[in-house]
Give the backbone structure.
Amino acid sequence: NASTPSANKDLFTVNSPNVVYTENEINTKYTYRTTLVNETADGKFEATPKETVYDFKVDRKIPKTGMMLVGWGGNNGTTVTAGIIANRHGLVWDTREGSRAANYYGSVVMGSTMKLGTNAKTAKDVNIPFHDVLPMVHPNDLAIGGWDISGMNLAEAMDRAAVLEPTLKAQVKKEMAEMVPLPSIYYPDFIAANQEDRADNLIEGGKASLAHVEQIRRDIRDFKAKHGLDKVIVQWTANTERFAELSPGVNDTAENLMKAIEEGHEEVSPSTVFAVASILEGAPFINGSPQNTFVPGAIQLAEKHNAFIGGDDFKSGQTKMKSALVDFLISAGIKLTSIASYNHLGNNDGKNLSSQRQFRSKEISKSNVVDDMVEANTVLYKKGEHPDHTVVIKYMPAVGDNKRALDEYYAEIFMGGHQTISLFNVCEDSLLASPLIIDLVLITEMMTRIKWKAHANDGATTKDFGNFHSVLSILSYMLKAPLTPPGTPVINALAKQRGALTNIFRACVGLEPESDMTLEHKLF
Ligand code: NAI
Ligand code: DG6
């Protein structure tokens, strides 16, 4: 179901001696400017500007790309599939509020813009669609497939999800009825017991095995061949699993993890088996749920195979607001003292999360999301001091996918005063998550086509072009608990996450980071 990728049509070119376009590549020499800080003996700081010159090479050929979803028959899986089909056909449908047309609202790549620069004549900002900054895959061109432990075809599964308007569903039904998830692996201990009645589409065997890894690898290969694809990206949007126990000798190294799979160890989760299979198959793997899929052994395996991974847990509503609002409050010098976050929802995700061990995975990923902002403000918070933070999730079948998120932010302001901000956020969870699934695929795919080389790194030159690190922390904007290369900091603040994404893309075409200084409007 993939159409021929749209031909690359550059909306802009960069006029600079540091940027060279060839038919197949954009080659850029980029100076990365940072500041190194040393603490002096008297407890002060000395800051030294530092420059590193990198060569970036962007492959301009847009590949035929496939997206395989684990949990394809769920609310997110069916909604993102219907959404892409609707966009591909330019569908319009009636609602009680009038007609609606397919769009990609909520996708940073498809729905947002980036300032390219200032118009040379009018001095006004020139903004371009984010999708046009680098030669990216268009979501309409994605081949879609995947696995589910429920064998329902996608049309029926879309009805079960109860997210989209009947008038839209009627138009995509025929196409979706022909889409049937591949059988999947089911280790009952990892998801809630209340999911058991869905599990009718299974690969034999109730615990991890090399046979499972091999079957998933075959599925990826077959999908690739069937659709004539250059690349496949695999994404976990299946149920939230419980955390796997971390044990030395089991999941601490790549070798031990492979051995644990071979021996059918009960602490290897289905999501880790999917990650391992994707890594070995050279297909990037993204985890959209909160569990610790990427045990240390899985990260090491990805590094060893130069494979790309990203995670964890889509950042769609409450947490996205939190990572913007808390950043604003603390950056404004306001001392946030508590956050109380309640959720109730009635979809199958909520049902699964009504089980304690699965809720615990979500509680962890939703709770650690302000740490970097708090730690950065040493004026407001003493070392180790942290606002109180509580997360509650309740299953309320009647509200379906229309999740309610209620938040109270309580803060200390000037001279012992208080500020209380109360938020009530209502929306279909899957309509927020679907565009994130698309962004994660498009950005991940793009990252597979960018190579770098340190032109001069403290005098030394890297010989060969290499990939970005296996762990794609550039995906942080879309994720609640961003996975970062081992030993590197986690950034949760939304504006910083977006800054990293846009500025890395700019660097790849030889553009400076957007500084927002606009000196041209301030110095006359
Ligand atoms: P869902 O429950 O509707 O869909 C999950 C699907 O996964 C189900 O169809 C289920 O049968 C399938 N499944 C379970 N175990 C499987 C396995 N081992 N292999 C293949 N399929 C399996 O849930 P929904 O709403 O689509 O969410 C999916 C995941 O995304 C959940 O973990 C949720 O917590 C997470 N998430 C959702 C967000 C949202 O806004 N909708 C935001 C953040 C995360
Ligand atoms: C209850 O919070 C259910 C969860 O699956 C969330 O809806 C989902 O993780 C989205 O969370 P957030 O915090 O990004 O809105």
Summary: The longest helix spans residues 429-447. DSSP finds 14 helices and 17 strands in the chain. The longest strand covers residues 25-39.
